Description:
The chain is an alpha+beta fold.
Amino acid sequence: MSSLDLASIDMTSVDLTPTSSLPLKLEERHLRLVMSSELTPSRPIPRTSTEMRQVLLAPDAKAPKVLYMMYRDVHLAKDEASLRSHNLRFDVTIIKGGLIGSEFIKTAGHYHPTMPALGLSYPEIYEVIHGEAVYLLQKVRALADPRRIVDVVQIEARTGDRVIIPPDYGHVTINPYKTPLVMTNVTADGFQSEYEPYRRLGGAAYYMVAEGGKPRWLANQKYINPPPVRSVEVRDFPQLGLLRGKAMYQALTQRPESFEFLTKPHRHMDLLNSVLR
């Protein structure tokens, strides 16, 4: 192995296999995954600070070049047929820790499109497999005027926790810690997320900022009187086969029919209406 090859290896790699049930390692320094050949190739999609300027509290503040990396459609080759037949996709995202100005690093934020003839947007489910996250969800009265929000929810999640994003809620993921956050998600395949409402308004209804060494919420003045942020505790979803200590990918591949709520949410509204209570 050449010296160049040796230099490219991140010696601070973290084995994510125990928490993800997939042959994955995290290279913290380079904010990237090392993926076994058993996995189908997935090219990382970087989200740069330049792309994120429109949604930051301080667009001109000094920031790392790459804030997070997205890996779409990550799965073992042997599971591809099952995932395709159920129209499901499994992703992995790595979010850098730290601050941009006084704001904690976050994702851009997006809504999901409304499903034809149902009047519901696609749900999504997340799992933290390394680090800790804060999910900020917001429900808009109508996307035609995204300034008017009717509900804002924060959910704090640690390694092993799952969070369901119900229909009609936009969401941002925040990493309020110095170490990288790694999360997985399952969603219906084939739709395009809607980022423009967040870009138009400079981000979510609230920014999470550091003040006196502690995080707090700062209202985004471009929204019209958003409700205060309320907290919801994480919970388990045994009815989905999502048991504590069992990775979401394992549950997905063993019982893909349990994830029907992502593709046919109208059949599972009791579950979806309960997740933010």
